[in-house]
Structures are given as C-alpha cells and as structure tokens.
UniProtKB/TrEMBL annotation:
GO terms for molecular function: hydrolase activity, acting on glycosyl bonds; metal ion binding; pseudouridylate synthase activity. This is Pseudouridine-5'-phosphate glycosidase. It catalyses: D-ribose 5-phosphate + uracil = psi-UMP + H2O. It comes from Eiseniibacteriota bacterium. Keywords: Glycosidase, Hydrolase, Lyase, Manganese, Metal-binding. Its EC number is 4.2.1.70. Catalyzes the reversible cleavage of pseudouridine 5'-phosphate (PsiMP) to ribose 5-phosphate and uracil. Functions biologically in the cleavage direction, as part of a pseudouridine degradation pathway. InterPro entries: Indigdn_synthA-like (IPR022830), PsuG (IPR007342). GO terms for biological process: nucleobase catabolic process. Binds 1 Mn(2+) ion per subunit. Mn(2+) binds at residue 170. It comes from the Bacteria. Pfam families: Indigoidine_A. Belongs to the pseudouridine-5'-phosphate glycosidase family.
Length: 337
C-alpha cells in the first residue's frame, strides 16, 4: 500500500489475525442522512457489526489519508466539515413546494461550502493530495477495502444506472468498482431512484454475481422486491459464505452483490413510495440536478415528501445490512483454509 492509507490498530490486528472485518462507508454521514443522524447512524452500524463478533472498519478521508477504521471524533469532523445533510432550501433555492429552479452553479456552490467532498474513483486522488476531508461512496469504499484485504462491505444501496441514462449517460462508478474489486457488498439492492432493471442487466454484463439473502428477487431499497430475479438465493449465511469464497478463489476479479431486503416491518408503503419517488424525480429534472448531486438531492427530497419516513426505512435497512454483513464475514473467516 502507498503512504495514502492509514489503517487503525484494531482493523490492522483483526486482518493480521484473519478475523472478520466489515467495511462501512461515510457518505451517509455527510450526504445520506440529515445532521446529526449521519454520525449517529454510522456509530449504530459499528455497534451492530461489533455485537455480531466482527470488527467495523468505517472508511473516510482526513488530513490527506484514506483512513480505514475511523473513530467517533473523525466522523464528527467529517460531518462538521460538510455541515451534515444538505437542507431543502439550499439545494432547491426555494421552499419545499419549489416555486422555481435555482441556478445550478449556485446550488453547487452552496453544496460545496457545506459538505465534505463525496469521493468516488475519479476524484479520490485529487482530494487526498489536497488534504481536504472527504466521505467515501460505495466505489471508493470498495477500492479501499480491497486494497487492505477486507472482503465484506455493508451499505444501504449501491449506485447503478440512472433513469434516462440512454440520453444522459449517467451510470454510477459503483458498477465499475464492483467489476474491478473483489469485495462482497451487502445491500438492499440499488438506490430507489435508479433504473433497477438496467442496473441488474449491467451487473450481469460486468460479470458481477447478484446473490439473494432470503430472497429470490433483487431488493428495491425501500421495498422488499423489484420483480427482478437474483442469480441464486441463499437462506443460510454459511452457504452464502461458501459461494462468496468460491467466487474469490476462482480469481474472477469482480465483486459480489448480496441483495438483502429491508425487514418487512420497515418497508415503505407502496403508494407512498411510488408517489414520492415520481415527484422527487420530476423535481430533479426540472431543476437540472446532475452528477454527484443527483442521489443526495433525491434522498433529501424523499425525506421531505415522506415526512421523514424514508429516513426511518433507510436507518432500518442500514442496520439490517450491517448485521448480515457481520454474519457473512464471520462465516467466511470460519471457513477460510
């Protein structure tokens, strides 16, 4: 590894002893949840992983280092540097009803002032070189996890093919990272705002297996099913671990997506989900929100439209994914030669 990495003592020792470790991202701290819920959620995920016998490794960028294994103070620094989740007025230039679009440049400037950088593969090196703080997306977390030897990563949902991508070309770098870095990602499918059918098709094209934990269908983030089949269903974590180990042992070079549906009691009602999503997507198109701002804008808009119901579901699926990831990491470690 280069001098850009800083691995905490707890994570380094666990990896050296081949104990289970679960990577966690930090975009939820700066972009995914409103302040101060981002830091609280990150700490909750760490506790969930630790309670299941695995070592949490939350990843972010501070002081010119890609840090694997952040402390609470580090998370608070990231949140403070970014000002937490962006507010509705700043992003839309108006009240929740959205009287009119704000200039894209103005929205971007406000977001940049209030947030730590949202790091993917394309801007990671530049931010590291600058010494500025940054939170890791799925793609950047996959990269860091693979480089230090972490095999399992828990997140809310992966990025994928955006709606209207045939016109815009907007496809998340998360898919590129999944095709390059051999890490198993436990998630509630892809983020709700994406084109799920095209995302699953792209994963197949890239040679990334999609395995279901207790499901025959690719999860739809806030909803348990999408109607899209997974490659194979596993109801026992030990059996899933065998499949993941086999994939890595073959040297295929790609990651593995583990679809883990949101618990039924936390699933968002279908009517609320579909209506709120349609409104959020229409607002984003009207305002010309693009690039890295699309997902955080839509998630924030969904939070407003669902009276924070999306945050309730989001927290629940994050914890559930962390729980399953810890169990998977443990099963992989126990079966390792």
């Amino acid at each position: 590894m280069t001098g850009f990495f800083a691995v905490s003592e707890a994570v380094a020792q666990a990896l050296a002893e081949r104990r289970p470790v679960v990577a966690l991202e930090t975009t939820l701290v700066t972009h995914g949840l409103p302040a101060p819920e981002g830091v609280e959620a990150a700490l909750e995920l760490e506790r969930e992983v630790a309670s299941r016998g695995a070592v949490p490794a939350t990843i972010g960028v501070l002081d010119g280092k890609l840090r694997v294994g952040l402390e609470r103070a580090d998370l608070e620094r990231l949140a403070a540097g970014g000002g937490g989740g962006a507010g509705p007025t700043e992003l839309r230039g108006g009240p929740p009803g959205g009287a009119g679009p704000a200039p894209a440049i103005a929205r971007t400037a406000v977001a940049s002032e209030r947030r730590a950088a949202k790091l993917s593969l394309g801007n990671l090196a530049a931010v590291l070189a600058s010494g500025e703080p940054g939170s890791t997306t799925v793609a950047a977390t996959l990269f860091a996890a693979a480089r230090v030897g972490i095999q399992v990563f828990a997140t809310g949902g992966i990025g994928g093919v955006h709606r209207g991508a045939s016109e815009t070309g907007d496809v998340s770098t998360d898919l590129v990272a999944l095709a390059r870095f051999p890490v198993a990602v436990v998630c509630a499918g892809a983020k709700a705002v994406l084109d799920l059918e095209k995302t699953v098709e792209m994963l197949e094209t890239l040679g990334v297996p999609v395995l279901g934990h207790g499901t025959d269908e690719f999860p739809a983030f806030y909803r348990r099913s999408s109607g899209l089949p997974v490659d194979r269903r596993y109801d026992v974590l030990r059996d899933l671990a065998v499949a993941v180990r086999a994939h890595f042992a073959l040297g295929l070079g790609t990651g593995v997506v583990i679809g883990n549906p949101i618990p039924a009691e936390h699933e968002m009602p279908l009517e609320l989900y579909e209506g709120s999503l349609a409104t959020a997507l229409a607002d984003a198109r009207r305002l010309g929100v693009r690039g890295r701002e699309v997902t955080p804008y839509l998630l924030e808009r969904l939070r407003e439209l669902t009276a924070s119901g999306s945050v309730f579901s989001n927290r629940a699926l994050l914890v559930h994914n962390a729980r399953v990831a810890a169990g998977l990491a443990t099963a992989i470690a126990e079966g390792a030669p």
